[in-house]
């Protein structure tokens, strides 16, 4: 009887053990399934976040590239405009060296400088080598000025009133400098349209 009882107890223990093991396996499978679901959810969320980060990075890169391209275009346009003004300055320099055109240039510059200014006993300063031309033009325009050469004036004239309170500088460089602001937009329009 003890042996039967022992066998019965062993059998009950095996059944109980198998039942507990089955429950434990079922619970482990549930935990594993839940963990796998959680991993899938986390992976999907991570993928979405990474896609967002990549999209944001692409947008930032495109924006940076667009800004860089705009800056390069602006720089190229500025260089083109500077080139136009450099060529204009060179051409004006050639005009100043041509005696026939130089006389007309001095007539214009001196005439404009003298407009509305009392020139009697004034001083007309010109660059080195321009005193003869300036004297002839002054006489032709009926100006009673003293003509002086100075290295401080180049490509034009500086007219000072008798009382020395009014000084008018009218040089090719100063005119181009004053006109530059107004001309930049016009040059840009000519080069690239409106």
Automatic annotation (TrEMBL):
It comes from the Bacteria. One of its GO terms (molecular function) is proton-transporting ATPase activity, rotational mechanism. The keyword Transport applies. Keywords: Ion transport, Transport. InterPro entries: ATPase_E_C (IPR038495), ATPase_V1_Esu (IPR002842). The keyword Amino-acid biosynthesis does not apply. One of its GO terms (cellular component) is proton-transporting two-sector ATPase complex, catalytic domain. Pfam families: vATP-synt_E (PF01991). Belongs to the V-ATPase E subunit family. This is V-type proton ATPase subunit E. It comes from Candidatus Segetimicrobium genomatis.
């Amino acid at each position: 009887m003890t042996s039967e009882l022992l066998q019965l107890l062993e059998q009950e223990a095996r059944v109980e053990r198998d039942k507990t093991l089955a429950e434990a396996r079922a619970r482990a499978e549930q935990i594993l399934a839940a963990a796998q679901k959680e991993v899938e959810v986390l992976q999907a969320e991570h993928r979405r976040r990474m896609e967002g980060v990549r999209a944001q990075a692409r947008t930032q890169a495109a924006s940076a590239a667009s800004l860089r391209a705009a800056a390069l275009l602006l720089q190229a346009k500025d260089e083109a405009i500077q080139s136009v003004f450099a060529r204009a300055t060179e051409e004006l320099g050639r005009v100043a060296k041509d005696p026939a055109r130089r006389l007309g240039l001095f007539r214009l510059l001196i005439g404009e400088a003298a407009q509305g200014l009392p020139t009697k006993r004034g001083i007309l300063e010109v660059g080195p080598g321009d005193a003869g031309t300036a004297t002839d033009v002054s006489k032709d325009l009926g100006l009673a000025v003293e003509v002086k050469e100075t290295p401080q004036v180049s490509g034009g004239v500086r007219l000072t009133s008798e009382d020395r309170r009014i000084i008018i500088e009218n040089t090719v460089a100063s005119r181009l400098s004053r006109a530059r602001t107004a001309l930049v937009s016009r040059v840009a329009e000519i080069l690239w349209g409106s």
